[in-house]
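Sample 3 of the quickstart, ligand DTB:
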Amino acid sequence: MSTQTLRFMRHANKPQANISQSTRQRWSVEDVEALFKLPFADLLYRAQQVHREHFDPNTVQLSTLLSIKTGGCTEDCGYCPQSAFNSTGVEDRKMLDVETVVTAAQYARQNGADRFCMGAAWREPTEEDMTSVVEMVKAVRGLGMETCATLGMLNDEQTEQLRAAGLDYYNHNLDTSPEFYGNIISTRDYQDRLDTLERVRKAGMSVCSGGIVGMGENLTQRAGLVAQLANMEPYPESVPINNLVKVEGTPLANVEDLDPLDFVRTVAVARITMPAARVRLSAGRQQMSDAVQALCFLAGANSIFYGEQLLTTGNPDVERDRALLDKLGMYPLADKH
Ligand code: SAM
Ligand code: DTB
Ligand code: SF4
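Result:
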């Protein structure tokens, strides 16, 4: 284990004031990999310590997703059911209208969600797309919910339009490490993603960025993703950790399953390296037992996607999630206590 990791561990229970680059350390891939290799109990103990220094460990932030434009995407992301390169049976639909989106957001709020995330199967939005999205953001914000959008790459003007509309978070995932990225996507490169994230950050919106594990990456590559995220200055406020949802018709449909404990480890390492971020236990929960999800919460996850649908694939229904949170004595951020 490197000296930096050991130094970090000795000081793991010292509070960090906020996500400020001046007070936090940069992470080498080697350091992050060393965390992954800790004995499971030691890793979870460290993650719990860090988690409790920054958050109430019994509270969970609930984001509801809505696909505002589904399918027919021009990108070739190997995991994605919405790529036109993949024959998954997902139909190319036109964009939803503002009323439909607002109705869905109202429903999500009634169910206890505090954030509403609008996703579109685009490489990047057009000018016309932006007009509708801006209306949607304003309307959802008017309901008193936090807003998030994930629309692909943004230019400066589009970023500014979203900021002016009051968008709280922009989601744009790094997806994997720079070294593994080329195995999964060829139609845009890693730097394009970093550029969009930089624009979002500079415009003053909060950054939501994470990745997918279980795509056949090795441990070093998994550590490489976490290091990339943790070394962003500052690191993202929200970090979705997705377990690959294997969809028939995508090139990754038959990749070997990730050991669930390695998923839990990824959550723990994200928590330790990004202490004040919301770490979201994201796609893949429908296939996960309650016990594995409980371990993820213990490892520092404090956010989930909530509602029976992700974008095109399923998610646990609201009743199952309410029951799980009850069993664990956890409560949604939006609930008054
Ligand atoms: N088109 C936009 C983009 O790629 O940024 C926004 C929507 S895209 C579906 C958002 C994210 O969903 C992807 O970056 C990826 O991390 C995640 N995702 C897509 N398909 C997935 C799958 N099968 N399993 C897990 N995560 C997935
Ligand atoms: C994120 O990191 N995961 C969400 C959200 N951001 C947009 C999307 C998961 C998509 C899973 C596959 C699907 O439902 O199409
Ligand atoms: Fe398109 Fe986004 Fe899917 Fe890639 S992940 S194919 S950009 S919808």
